[in-house]
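Support case: user asked for a sample of complex input and structure output to validate their parser. Sending the pair below.
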Amino acid sequence: MKYLFAEGIHNMYTHGFMSFAAVCVTVACFIIIGSFSMIVYNLGLFVSDMEHQNRIHAFIDESYDTSAAKSVGSQINLVDNVLEAKFISREEAGERFIDQQGGGNAFEGVTAETFRDRFEITLEDNAKMDETVQALGAIKGVAEVKALPELAKGFLTIQRAFNIASVVIIVVLLVVSLFMISNTIKLAMYDRKEEIGIMKMLGATNRFIRFPYFVEGFLIGVISAGLAFLLEWGLYDFLAEKITQSQNLQLFNLVPFREVVIPMVFAFGATGLLVGMFGSVMSIRKFLDV
Amino acid sequence: MIDFRNVTKIYDTGNHALNGVSLHIDDGEFVFLVGPSGSGKSTIIKLLTAELMPSSGSIQVNGYQIESIKKSQIPDLRRTVGVIFQDFRLIENKTVFDNVAFGMRIVGASAKQIKERVDYVLDLVGLENRGRRFPHELSGGEQQRVAIARSLVNNPNMIIADEPTGNLDPQRSYEIMMLLERANALGTTVMIVTHEQELVNRFTKRVIAIANGKVINDGMDGYYLNESD
Ligand SMILES: Nc1ncnc2c1ncn2[C@@H]1O[C@H](COP(=O)(O)OP(=O)(O)OP(=O)(O)O)[C@@H](O)[C@H]1O
Ligand SMILES: [Mg+2]
């Protein structure tokens, strides 16, 4: 067993250039895959954050006093798809607005009269938003319903498109790295065709012959994953810092890599392992018929 | 035990290498297989190890039926037969030691067993100081002795040697023959393929002569057919 592992490692050295090339390409693929995953993840967070901030607001007719306004809530709760409706008085709304703007003096003139009483409504299913908005608008006493602003809707579309594109890109790159490793092993075995023939003549089983090549593919996969992971980490932190420093992009709040290190380690590790193993298994079969 | 019954082998190219060969070699025998170049000797060896399949007829080797052997049984069959190939078939990027050790590694011997046994057989063939060299750093005769050491290492039931002395001087080839005879005395079946009349006649052994893919003589008289016969 130890012998077979040693053989696998030795193999990597002997056709070092091919192994090196395979590691490089695989690292590149893994970094791109990792980056897309991180972007998808951040975008997802960003959009859900937006959805959160932008719950539906149902504004109550200004002629209603506070208690009358509150009583509209029971009707709102009857509407399909409404999960929760929270009453916010015009005073609270004013304070909140000033808070959100940083509590500066600029809004000193703003009084509670500028705001209306409202219900902040959370939906069960955001996809049915349009129907719900209509239903809410039809309730007596509701003056106006404001749903997700266009910006957030736009982001939702972008996110969906991006998710699909990412899945496609990730699959393609996985295939590329699989192919790279498989090809390296194929060449390694082709190089050793004669040697494999001799081994078989001496009574070596296929499993015995295969094992070192399997180790080699496995190592290429895992080493690539390790390198890609470290590079990804560095790259991500670098970009995250740049974005935080930049004036225009502050809107985006990137998740620090630290927070996702553990799932990323597993994701990279598992991908490297699987790609390495399948890559070598794919190529090994053909060479053993002697 | 080797048993050929009416075996023919026609290569894909249409060459009739063997035409109805029947022969039987019992366990523990020592046999020379002689015949002119191209008569089918190496073909017989390749059939024995299931490297080739017969076109017709039946072949039994150490209890395995070659024409119907399962793929998974081939490694087991080959481990019962130590073959010394005409072209040595050493693994170029492994040292002499590792080449010889390989046969033991595939059966899962321990490092200690391997070291002891490999050193012993290298000593036996007179290569005690060559373990760390690579095949291309050896003379033809030395490479041949590595091949012999490799065939001996697992103590197979049967040793088959294709021209084992082709590259050796008379003194060396005599020593190698003595070595194979010693293995035979210890119970190993030995079959030696050779051209060398001298060598065959020096031992009083059974000689199977083939020509044009047919057995033309089989006996204990040390008879050797010249290519002109
Ligand atoms: N792979 C092959 N394809 C086609 N014909 C072959 C092949 N191998 C051998 N032959 C032919 O089969 C016949 C027997 O060949 P074989 O190698 O068995 O001879 P041999 O007795 O071992 O000869 P030598 O003493 O030169 O080694 C020859 O005519 C040879 O040309
Ligand atoms: Mg031959």
